[in-house]
Design goal:
Helix content: 25-40%
Strand order of the largest sheet: 1-3-2-4-5
CATH topology: Glutaredoxin
Length: about 110
Amino acid sequence: MAIIHLNKENFDKEVVQSKIPVIVDFWASWCRPCIMMAPVFEELSKEYSSKLKFAKISTEEEPNIANKFSITGIPCLIIMQNGKEVDRIIGFGPKNILKQKIDAILDQI
């Protein structure tokens, strides 16, 4: 499943109404760790395609959504189920560490 690029028009459909949990990458174009996170996020999206939807949202283009989720540091990965936040991962991490954290969160859902 490809990474979905979120905006105010598709956020409810893709996140709130999703039948499977969604991990949303809150990022910005000027953020170096966010740029480093992009290929890792892409790789992980291929590994979890059947049990976790991957999406990205620019905090620059959608500041109201970022404010709604109290985003104070980026990159910020928020795992949501039924439109509610389950957990979040803040900052860049290598693929193996992010995978461990995602697996632990999915095991709790």
